[in-house]
User: Which sequence fits this backbone?
């Protein structure tokens, strides 16, 4: 073997080692990036934090507020999640409390109301009872 062949082999071996090193470092960076993304995905959103703290009919009020006032509700939810995480809000937020909060800051969330009355041992909607009673009177 000539001297040039040995030099060429050394250069090839050196280049191969560099390529392997670059490949392994690139794979490590990809693993780190994937772990960071996974951790970021695991972090609950502000809406999820608030939903975990909602009580009776709280989710219903929140959904109505999001449908009627999406931008304003997003700001309120963000602030509520900050207060929950800081420990300033420790109690459960039921629908009445959440509705009162929205109305106190000027967001008039409209809720669908339904009044039921008892008739013959069953609960019937007041509108149904009134409409049936007007038909029977005529």
Assistant:
């Amino acid at each position: 073997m000539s001297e040039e062949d040995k030099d060429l082999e050394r250069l090839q071996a050196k280049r191969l080692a560099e390529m392997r090193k670059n490949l392994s470092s690139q794979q490590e960076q990809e693993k780190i990036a994937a772990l960071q993304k996974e951790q970021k995905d695991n972090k609950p959103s502000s809406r999820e934090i608030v939903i975990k703290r909602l009580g009776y009919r709280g989710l219903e009020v929140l959904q109505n507020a999001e449908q009627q006032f999406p931008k304003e509700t997003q700001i309120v939810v963000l602030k509520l999640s900050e207060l929950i995480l800081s420990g300033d809000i420790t109690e459960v937020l039921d629908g009445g409390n959440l509705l009162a909060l929205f109305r106190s800051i000027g967001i008039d969330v409209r809720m669908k109301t339904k009044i039921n009355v008892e008739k013959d041992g069953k609960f019937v909607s007041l509108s149904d009872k009134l409409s049936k009673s007007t038909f029977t009177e005529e």
Notes: The radius of gyration is 32 Å. DSSP finds six helices and two strands in the chain.
